[in-house]
Amino acid sequence: MDLRKLKTLIDLVAESGISELEVHEGEGKVRIVKAPLQGFAPPVQYAPAPVIAAPVPAATPVAEVPAAPTGNIVTSPMVGTFYRSPGPGKPAFVELGKAVKAAEPVCIIEAMKLLNEIEAGFDGVIKEILVENGQPVEFGQPLFVIA
User: Fold this and answer.
1) What is the rounded CA–CA span in Å between residue 122 and residue 133?
2) Residue by residue, what is the 3-state secondary structure of the chain?
3) 16-37: pLDDT as tens digits
4) Which residue segments constitute the domains of the chain, with CATH numbers given?
């Protein structure tokens, strides 16, 4: 479904009284849900909870927080599914310890059935691969560390 059609459907839902619309076109499916308006629920007042003094536990050891990766971080430019190789059964774009150039592809992120090659963005060596193959990723999520 093209973007103009999708925008038209979104506008229809926004302007109408319906709260949800689902459209099937070929093998594709689009579902648009209008969020409920905020502020229409009556205010709820809560009585403050009584304060009860609790015994103070003995000092507990603080868990160590893993150190943040050092080097240049390649982050996901979109939400989608992370793939290390260009196709099933094909070798990965990069491996640990491999030297890469800034314009070299390091992975693919599939978003809305489109495969998007992600470039390293930095010259260097792959120090860490932070995502597993086939794992969903979020916008801005770290994918690789390049030193």
Assistant:
1) 21
2) CCHHHHHHHHHHHHHCCCCEEEEEECCEEEEEECCCCCCCCCCCCCCCCCCCCCCCCCCCCCCCCCCCCCCEEEECCCCEEEECCCCCCCCCCCCCCCEECCCCEEEEEEECCEEEEEECCCCEEEEEECCCCCCEECCCCEEEEEC
3) 777 777 887 777 777 777 765 5
4) 3-33 (no CATH), 72-146 (2.40.50.100)
Q: What pLDDT does residue 61 have?
A: 61
Distance of CA 35 to the CA centre of its chain: 21
pLDDT digits (tens, 9 = 90+) for 60-105: 565 565 566 678 999 999 999 999 999 889 999 999 999 999 999 9
In sequence order, the 6+-apart residues with CB closer than 8 A to the CB of 134 are 81, 82, 83
Q: What residues contact residue 75 under an 8 Å CB cut-off, 6+ apart?
A: 140, 141, 142, 143
Confirm if 144 and 126 have CB atoms less than 8 A apart. Answer: yes
* Residue that has been written with the tokens 């502020």 in this structure: 39
